[in-house]
Amino acid sequence: MNNNEILYLYDAKLCNPNGDPDEENRPRMDYEREINLVSDLRLKRYIRDYLLDLGYDIFVRGVDGKTVNAEGRTKEFKEFTDEWILDNLIDVRMFGATMPVKGDNKTFIGPVQFNWGYSLNKVELLESSITSHFSSDTGNSQGAIGKDYRVKYSLIAFFGVVSGKRAEKTKLKEEDLQLLDKAMKYAIVNLATRSKVGQYPRLYLRVEYKDSHTILGDFRDYISLNERVENVRDIEEVSLDITRLVEKLDENKDKINRIFYFADSSLELTVNGSRVDLKEALKDFNLVEVE
Fold first, then answer.
1. How far is residue 273's CA from residue 291's CA, in Å, rounded to a whole number?
2. Which Pfam families would you find in this protein's record (predicted)?
3. Residues 183, 50 contacting (CB under 8 angstroms)
4. Would you kindly state where each structural domain of the chain is located, as residue ranges?
5. Phi first, then psi: what are they for 196, rounded to 5°?
6. Are 202 and 10 a contacting pair, CB within 8 Å?
7. pLDDT, tens digit, for every residue of 232-278?
8. Given its phi and psi angles, is residue 102 left (phi above 0), alpha (psi -120 to 50 degrees) or beta?
9. Phi-psi region for residue 24, left (φ > 0), alpha (ψ -120 to 50) or beta?
10. Taking a C-beta distance cutoff of 8 angstroms, is the pair 267, 203 a contact?
């Protein structure tokens, strides 16, 4: 398998993309820059849950509806050979895992990795009080009052890498990457909870190279957000300048095999100041749209 690099954007409106348990479950923030943060583990959880819903077995999950640690999960295995693990657990083929085995650890380094996502816009938090209709443990018959924290609007960008050489060691398949593509398009919307309703995928690129050593670097460095209002509250109030990204890909066209993509029509894309369709902007490449 060859190397791939990924750019993924989704937005969050009046919801909590990734609560921080050390901050009363407030959305994770870089307060100095007013930037919303989302961990790679949150994104991987969406992907895992989507694959599980499709009927694929995964390593990082509960057992019989209950949360268990890694040791408890491994007790459920029919076998414990590398071959069985990699043949049966798709998330290990993708993301790797560390599994306890008789006082030792079996470690698989995953070929698919993301760094933390961050918002392209400055983000404001919304704080409100919520009241439960159930009485509290302290005997308050009127119900318990708590806090609810959400972002007003956040356009979040992730960057990811697929290592071709590591993929060989975990037996990652082309079919696995196609499932990853679909998860990036459908998981967030289909797995929404109360705190996550209001998130929608907006843009996805998986650039597949012709070899297992090419890496162009973080694609987020080549995009910029243009905000039409001071405090953004909706996708219609921004446009994404992809001029430098298109130029970067064009400069390395001879290294690129295919580009897998989807683009939501609500996100306006521009090249050199003019609105463009992503398919038209990348017309010189072998494009595969994620259905």
1. 29
2. Cas_Cas7
3. yes
4. 4-289
5. -110, -10
6. yes
7. 999 999 999 999 999 999 999 999 999 999 999 999 999 999 999 99
8. left
9. left
10. yes
